[in-house]
């Protein structure tokens, strides 16, 4: 078997994981201009809930998936009601710092609840290859790719055609103007944070069966942020493209060079993209708000 | 003035001298009173790294409780003072500074994270006579006299990463008879030191690595590494990876049809890795551990049952062996010191620890003034029908070439 097709396939799967994480960041940034550093913690909690629901409660994977999404969305809404709602008029930097504080609180709560041990989904038929030629692809890997595409299409439709989606875009463009048009800042913020929580759980529960869930699981945020930076923090297709570019680069670079270099080279790529096009490949100037 | 007989006067004088000398002795021996000896366990006890510290802390408590139930040491009970170093060098130095300056403990155990151990070794250990026994696996370099790491009062109980590499090679070469050996390690110092240990021991057999790959500690994919290893066609792959990348490697090796034997170092510490993988991913797998048996095996099960009964809320992993081993080593040294205990005497007796078998470690512990790395090998286990089983009794030495496992006599 030639190495290249398998590496391309692996890069796309990793890229879709990064893209799913990036989409959650983009949703909040598009609506509020804030980078949500608590996203990694909602990914972590979503994964913990998913693995607990399957392993300890015995729920089927789809039900566990839905439960994780609902709980993570609820956590998003609660964090809005408890923290972000009170900072709506605050400068962006204060709001970003608030997301860091929420990230620490959620991660701490997760460690108190689940401890520091690793949790793994039990092996299942989904983890078996569904095709072996020309590349090996397992059911879970296919699910990740399909999930990323569905989420991207659904979000694109929501932002283009949905009433609250359009309100989010308007608010991101011009907060004062959107307010004069009757768009409620608080409601848009609440929806975006809640939606981001749900997206975090989707990313976490789709990826978790491929690995182990422990307190470092939320590290995916870094990869998601890198993907969003490459694709553009305001662009949903950009997040997906950015994730896949990052995944492919990592995969191909490891094949050609020692893995020691791979993370550095990926971030060199990000720096090059941002130097040439600071808003990312598909982003708009909204990034200047930071 | 009351006229007292000479005998009574001598008796009162003796009591007076005794009452003066007792506090003086306590001052010379930090953490020691007439009725107690206090020993600290400073380790990662909360947060993301608490799986390293909590089992070991309870291992130490278990050993001390057994001593106390048997009457203590020369009339003194052993007390554990637990401190959280958060796996952080800065926090560990802060904790050690407090313990040393307060003179509230006779020794400090723990410091499982190598960076925390080295920070305390270099900053606090030289300022105090009390001994430190680290559970970290950084002893090869961190206690090396040639590299300036050997300190008179700083010890390492666990087998170093370098020696683990040697132990895995001894096992692989003698049991699996490979002609081609490959390596995969993390992109950090853990992988680097493991690789050095593997290469050094392979050289003693006249072998060289046929492939040498690296993985990020939290990488999402190992396809490229697995395919490159597969292309090199090794019989055995020795892996120095933490739990998460080890799981990724085993999973993807199975998916991509790579059937070489894969052997991991002692960092794979809990069974979630096995229960998350297809049985076919574990058919060619062996793991190394510090403990003398898997936790459900006949040599460890009685101990683990007692531990679970005493500490029902704690999730134990094989790292508990370090806590039990260090606890038993320091108790033995204190017994040799006798009633008049001081930190200096304790250090001297620790340096006289020779081939001491413990109830949890797979290897006997030896400390001398020139060798403060007590660990010397690994026990090997495998997975049969989804269950961890000891592959063979004993430990494979890692500091010297060995044709077979060594058995510790109880």
Automatic annotation (TrEMBL), chain A:
It is found in: Cell membrane. The chain crosses the membrane at residues 6-29, 36-57, 63-84, 96-115, 135-159, 188-210. It holds the Pfam family BPD_transp_2. GO terms for molecular function: transmembrane transporter activity. It is a multi-pass membrane protein. One of its GO terms (biological process) is amino acid transport. One of its GO terms (cellular component) is plasma membrane. Keywords: Amino-acid transport, Cell membrane, Membrane, Transmembrane, Transmembrane helix, Transport. It comes from the Bacteria. Belongs to the binding-protein-dependent transport system permease family. LivHM subfamily. This is Branched-chain amino acid ABC transporter permease.
From TrEMBL, chain B:
Keywords: Amino-acid transport, Signal, Transport. Residues 1-26 form the signal peptide. InterPro entries: Leu-bd (IPR028081), Leu_Ile_Val-bd (IPR000709), Peripla_BP_I (IPR028082). The keyword NAD does not apply. One of its GO terms (biological process) is amino acid transport. It holds the Pfam family Peripla_BP_6. The keyword Transport applies. Belongs to the leucine-binding protein family. PANTHER family: BLR6548 PROTEIN. This is Leucine-binding protein domain-containing protein. It comes from Chelatococcus reniformis.
């Amino acid at each position: 078997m030639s190495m290249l097709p398998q590496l391309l396939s692996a890069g796309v799967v990793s890229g879709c994981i990064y893209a799913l994480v990036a989409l959650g960041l983009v949703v909040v940034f598009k609506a509020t201009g804030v980078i949500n550093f608590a996203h990694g913690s909602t990914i972590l909690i979503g994964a913990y809930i998913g693995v607990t629901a399957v392993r300890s409660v015995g729920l089927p994977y789809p039900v566990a998936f839905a439960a994780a999404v609902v709980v993570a969305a609820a956590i998003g809404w609660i964090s809005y009601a408890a923290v972000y709602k009170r900072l709506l008029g605050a400068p962006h930097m204060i709001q970003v710092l608030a997301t860091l504080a929420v990230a620490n609180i959620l991660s701490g709560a997760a460690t108190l609840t689940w401890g520091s041990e690793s949790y793994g989904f039990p092996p299942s038929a989904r983890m078996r290859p569904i095709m072996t030629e020309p590349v090996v692809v397992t059911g879970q890997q296919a699910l990740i790719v399909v999930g990323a595409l569905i989420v991207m299409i659904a979000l694109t439709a929501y932002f283009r055609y949905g009433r609250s989606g359009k309100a989010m875009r308007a608010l991101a463009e011009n907060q004062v103007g959107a307010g004069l048009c009757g768009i409620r800042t608080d409601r848009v913020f609440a929806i975006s944070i809640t939606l981001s929580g749900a997206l975090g759980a989707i990313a976490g529960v789709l990826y978790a069966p491929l690995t182990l869930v422990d307190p470092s699981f939320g590290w995916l945020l870094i990869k998601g942020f890198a993907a969003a930076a490459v694709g553009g923090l305001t662009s949903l297709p950009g997040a997906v493209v950015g994730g896949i570019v990052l995944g492919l680069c990592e995969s191909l670079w490891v094949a050609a060079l020692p893995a020691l270099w791979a993370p550095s080279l990926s971030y060199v790529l990000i720096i090059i993209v941002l130097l040439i096009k600071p808003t990312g490949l598909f982003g708009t100037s909204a990034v200047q708000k930071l | 003035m009351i006229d007292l007989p000479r005998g009574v006067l001598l008796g009162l004088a003796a009591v007076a001298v005794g009452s003066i000398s007792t506090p003086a002795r306590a001052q010379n021996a930090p953490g020691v009173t007439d009725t107690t000896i206090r020993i600290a366990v400073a380790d990662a006890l909360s947060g993301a790294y608490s799986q390293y510290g909590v089992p070991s802390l309870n291992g130490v408590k278990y050993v001390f409780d057994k001593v106390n139930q048997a009457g203590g040491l020369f009339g003194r009970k052993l007390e554990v003072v637990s401190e959280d170093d958060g796996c952080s060098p800065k926090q560990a130095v802060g904790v050690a500074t407090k313990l040393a300056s307060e003179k509230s403990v006779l020794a400090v155990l723990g410091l499982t994270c190598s960076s925390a151990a080295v920070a305390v070794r270099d900053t606090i250990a030289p300022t105090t006579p009390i001994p430190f026994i680290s559970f970290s696996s950084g002893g090869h370099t961190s206690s090396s006299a040639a590299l300036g790491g050997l300190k008179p009062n700083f010890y390492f109980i666990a087998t170093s990463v370098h020696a683990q590499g040697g132990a895995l090679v001894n096992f692989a070469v003698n049991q699996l008879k490979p002609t081609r050996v490959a390596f995969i390690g993390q992109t950090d110092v853990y992988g680097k030191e493991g690789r050095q240990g593997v290469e050094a021991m392979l050289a003693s057999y006249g072998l060289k690595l046929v492939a040498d790959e690296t993985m990020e500690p939290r990488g999402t994919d190992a396809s490229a590494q697995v395919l490159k290893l597969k292309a090199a066609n090794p019989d055995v792959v020795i892996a120095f990876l933490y739990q998460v990348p080890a799981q990724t490697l085993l999973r993807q090796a199975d998916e991509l049809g790579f059937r070489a034997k894969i052997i991991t170092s002692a960092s794979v510490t809990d069974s979630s890795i096995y229960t998350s993988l297809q049985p076919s991913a574990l058919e060619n797998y062996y793991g190394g551990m510090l403990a003398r048996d898997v936790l459900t095996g006949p040599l460890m099960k009685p101990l683990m049952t007692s531990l679970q009964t005493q500490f029902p809320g704690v999730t134990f992993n094989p790292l508990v062996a370090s806590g039990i081993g260090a606890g038993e080593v320091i108790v033995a040294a204190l017994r040799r010191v006798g009633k008049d205990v001081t930190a200096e005497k304790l250090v001297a007796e620790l340096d006289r620890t020779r081939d001491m078998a413990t109830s949890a470690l797979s290897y006997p512990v030896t400390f001398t003034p020139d060798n403060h790395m007590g660990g010397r090998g690994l026990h090997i286990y495998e997975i049969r029908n989804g269950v961890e089983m000891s592959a063979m009794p004993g430990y494979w030495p890692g500091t010297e070439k060995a044709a077979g496992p060594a058995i510790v006599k109880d």
